[in-house]
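Q: What structure does this chain adopt?
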Amino acid sequence: MKVLGIYGSPRKGGNSDLLLDQALAGAKEAGAEVSAVYSRQLSIEGCRECGGCDKTGECVIKDQMQEVYPLLDQADAIILSVPMFFYAAPAQPKALVDRCQARWSKRMLTKTKEQRKSFDSGKGYLIAVGATKGANLFQGVEMMAKYFYDALDMSYEGGLLLRGVEGRAAVNEHPEHLREAYELGKKIVAEAAGK
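A:
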């Protein structure tokens, strides 16, 4: 089983990075082959909404996103991990998500309306962490994740949503959250194996 982690923070070593590190470690211990994409290291444009992918399902923009598409396609499970910026995901992972319009176009081209009611490419998960404790903190990012995974022909399975974690690496003061992330990684692999 292949598990891909998408690091969504513009800052290295922050809370969402540390949580995803743990989730991938748990998945690896459970027997998965893990890989990672760091959105902050990618030089990618946002979606131009040019319609270039409408007939082929392939993005016409030639940048580092072309290296990401095969990783998305090969993964059995994807974990997107983001810090909350103004009740949303930061620009770097959002650009990556938006560029998956090409995968949505591909899905529209290759599956009938009836076939699109099921997801055949795996499962998607979200780790999101924010400083505020606002009741609606994760509504927007969860909708984004759901439709990101929908475009990838994956079901959205939830994940780990943590409020009230403020300050760089402050999640280290909450070992229970790090353990939850580790257990999430193990659970992802166990569920895929039917255990």
